[in-house]
């Protein structure tokens, strides 16, 4: 694998329409549509989740090569516990498998790993693998891969308020609340991508996306390739962000 600097210029020269000065600092993705992808192929839903792993690999690699500092992937929501137990079990097993198998590739790409969500409620074997992967990757600095697992935006805000109270804070302002969120210290997402067409947030990063640019594509997650990510970034760069100003 060539050094990161070379990779970076490589990707940008392949994609001359991207302005390297105006890349998002944080991209967040609602990876949706695995089930529909499988259904369209008369395959079990698990086949869609499995196929989605390649899209994760490609998104991580592309963000690392572009020099995007943070990529947050919504992998399991607090509401996803409503799914059939077999699907949940398969998702957890797949997560464990991917963590084991991908950690060295992530390391080679300079990726660091963080999780957001109520991790303590995940199966013990998943927590163990997450801890091992985070430890292996802790000294990397190219891309922070932030996995949202058992994550809910409302729960995060509640947890932050409780943490601030427990820390003895008597008054709370935006900065103080942000410091108690799971994402403390991270820039807010500049770009929120949702695959598979639904026009909703599904309880994702409710506080942090106050001014994110939204990009919804009909492409199902397992079909979301590097070119789709580059197109989302290109469209982001064409937006005029006013933040309430003129
Ligand atoms: C996203 O795909 C993966 C997770 C939520 C874990 P879905 O499984 O939600 O796929 P659809 O929405 O049913 O097509
Ligand atoms: C959002 O997708 C959660 C993840 C991608 C992990 P869902 O498929 O769970 O969302 P809804 O049910 O369509 O809102
Ligand atoms: Mg879905």
Write the layout of secondary structure elements.
Blueprint: H1 4-14, E1 26-30, H2 34-40, H3 45-66, E2 70-77, H4 85-108, E3 111-116, H5 124-136, E4 143-151, H6 153-166, H7 174-180, E5 191-195, E6 213-217, H8 226-238
Parallel strand pairs: 1-2, 1-5, 2-4, 3-4, 5-6
Helix pairs in contact: 1-3, 2-3, 3-4, 4-5, 6-7
Strand content: 15-25%
Q: Cofactors and ligands present? A: 3-methylbut-3-enyl trihydrogen diphosphate, magnesium ion
Q: From the alpha carbons, calculate the radius of gyration and give it in angstroms.
A: 18 Å
> What's the number of extended β-strand segments?
6
Number of helices: 8
Helix content: 40-55%
Report the end-to-end length measured between terminal Cα atoms: 45 Å
Which descriptor suits the 3D outline? globular
Mean pLDDT: 95
Contiguous low-pLDDT stretches (5 residues minimum) are 3-7
Number of domains: 1
Give the neighbour order of strands across the main sheet.
3-4-2-1-5-6
CATH architect. name: 3-Layer(aba) Sandwich
Give the name of the CATH superfamily: Decaprenyl diphosphate synthase-like
CATH topology: Undecaprenyl pyrophosphate synthetase
CATH class category name: Alpha Beta
Oligomer: single chain
Describe this structure in words.
The chain has 246 residues and is α/β, with parallel strands linked by helices. The protein has one domain (4-8, 21-234): Undecaprenyl pyrophosphate synthetase, CATH 3.40.1180. The protein contains eight helices and six strands, in the order H-E-H-H-E-H-E-H-E-H-H-E-E-H. It has helices at 4-14, 34-40, 45-66, 85-108, 124-136, 153-166, 174-180, 226-238; strands at 26-30, 70-77, 111-116, 143-151, 191-195, 213-217. Strands 3-4-2-1-5-6 form a six-stranded parallel β-sheet, with helices on both faces. Helix 3 (45-66) runs parallel beside helix 4, helix 4 runs parallel beside helix 5 and helix 6 (153-166) packs across helix 7. The termini are far apart. It binds 3-methylbut-3-enyl trihydrogen diphosphate (2 copies) and magnesium ion. One 3-methylbut-3-enyl trihydrogen diphosphate binds at residues 30-32, 74-77, 79-80, 198, 200, 202. One 3-methylbut-3-enyl trihydrogen diphosphate (IPE) is lined by residues 30-32, 74-77, 79-80, 198, 200, 202.
């Amino acid at each position: 694998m060539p050094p990161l600097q070379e990779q970076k210029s490589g990707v940008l020269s392949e994609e001359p329409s991207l302005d390297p000065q105006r890349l998002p600092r944080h991209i967040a993705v609602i990876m949706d549509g695995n089930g529909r992808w499988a259904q369209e192929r008369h395959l079990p839903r698990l086949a869609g989740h499995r196929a989605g792993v390649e899209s994760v690999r490609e998104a991580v690699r592309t963000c690392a090569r572009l020099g995007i500092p943070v990529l947050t992937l919504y992998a399991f929501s607090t509401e996803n516990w409503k799914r059939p137990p077999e699907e949940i079990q398969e998702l957890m097993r797949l997560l464990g498998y991917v963590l084991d198998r991908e950690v060295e590739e992530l390391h080679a790409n300079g990726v660091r790993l963080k999780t957001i969500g109520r991790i303590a409620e995940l199966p013990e074997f998943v927590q163990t693998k997450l801890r091992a992967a985070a430890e292996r990757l802790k000294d990397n600095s190219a891309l922070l891969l932030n996995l949202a697992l058992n994550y809910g935006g409302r729960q995060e805000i509640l947890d932050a308020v409780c943490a601030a109270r427990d820390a003895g804070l008597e008054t709370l302002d935006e900065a103080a609340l942000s410091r108690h969120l799971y994402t403390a210290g991270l820039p807010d997402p500049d770009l929120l991508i949702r695959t598979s067409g639904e026009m909703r947030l599904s309880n994702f990063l409710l506080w942090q996306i106050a001014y994110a640019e939204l990009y919804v594509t009909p492409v199902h997650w397992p079909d979301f390739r590097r070119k789709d990510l580059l197109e989302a970034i290109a469209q982001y760069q064409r937006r005029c962000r006013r933040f309430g100003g003129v």
